[in-house]
Amino acid sequence: MLDRRFVCESIVEQTDPPVLISEADIQQRVLELAEQISADYADCDQLVLVGVLKGSFIFLADLSRALSIPRTIEFIAVSSYETGSVSSGAVRLIMDVRGNIENKHVLIVEDIVDTGHTLKYLLRIIHSHGPASVRTCTLLHKAECAEVDVDVDYIGFNIGDEWVVGYGLDYAERDRTLPYIGVITPDDR
Ligand code: PRP
User: Fold this and answer.
1) Which residues of 52-91 are buried (b: 16+ CB within 10 A; e: fewer)?
2) Does pTM surpass 0.85?
């Protein structure tokens, strides 16, 4: 008879992507970013964090709870990768922010900046709402893949040209809830 525990562990080993950034390293870096952002916005009575759906939802949840300054949360939803691993370059707005961000200090929170098309598009949308200021924060940055010039104010980790999943990031909706950042080879590469 098969040992069920052995079978389950074998399946997990086969299906979980290799670790690029561990859960502990992510949590440590999130605390550091939160400390930096809290210091930079110490004189600000209300910072609006705009999480970019879907990928930033876990990073935003951890980062926002680690801040020591007053903050509110908004979401915006865009998509450019659809189901594959190659950016279409054409970013689609799926859902704009719901609250009024006019004259408020805004921090856009992304999971990853790759080609930069999404963040550039987001900056245009957010600026159109007339905020007092706009800065950008991303957990992961692929500087070598940049196709457009866009400033990122807070970066968690710089990574190479690898397809990463976990901690909010997906490949065709898979692996978003992994607690760490893993590396995969997409089928279309
Ligand atoms: C991912 C990610 C960023 C964007 C970055 O979104 O969340 O928003 O790609 O890529 P870029 O710098 O090349 O534009 P995706 O379109 O995969 O949607 P998702 O967050 O819903 O998974």
Assistant:
1) bbbbbbbbbebbbebbebebeebbbebbbbeeeeebeeeb
2) yes
